[in-house]
Amino acid sequence: MSFGAQRWSPWLIRSPPTATDSKLTDVVLRNFERRLEHLVEGTFARVFKTGLNPIEIGRRIVREIDANQSVAVDGALAVPNHYWVYISTADYERFQEVETPLTNELIEAARTHIADESYRVLGPVSVVLVEAAEYPEGTLQVQAQWREGATTPTTAALVMETGERFTIDDGPFTVGRLPDCSLILSDENVSRHHAVIQRAPGGWTLTDHGSTNGTTVNGTPINEAQLQSGDHIVFGATPATFEAR
Q: The whole model's pTM is what?
């Protein structure tokens, strides 16, 4: 597979530094690994028993971020905001079961590193897994790309019919009847762990957790849906409105 040249924005005034200029540190990697750790040790642990480990994907994305710094006209450090992750067919097929949560965690970890280093980006950060049939199992290649685009909304909330407002933070926002949920609903039609809202490329994603009575968005039953500000959601029999700014 041949990898195309990166696209550089006209407001950048020098090429990226070499790998030896990277600000990659053990602290950065440890922070990155902690963010991904629950996927490896949690519900999806069996997916990661063989082949490529997601921690290594995180390490390579961090390296790619730091290795592609450029200086903007005003002196700020800028980095690419889109990352292609090329992996073997065996690893790609194994990751299909967890692609959405894994990709979301990689994006969030990349965003955190970019913010911690005060880097500038042209638009929302995104990560895409790509099947590369010629790659041996356990190997990968990360390619960075500059993509201009609208800034992702930074805040979101669920607004109930009573007017009560629940802020959705960057981490998973869970909805259900159990006390460990971010939003606890007393509705008997709501399952114990009913649904979850998470950051996704360009915004937020709502996923139903196999609830008994289902979840709808604007009247349509969903398993997973990309949310837009103003969407009307019903968890079981409890309505709410999603807002993002």
A: 0.53
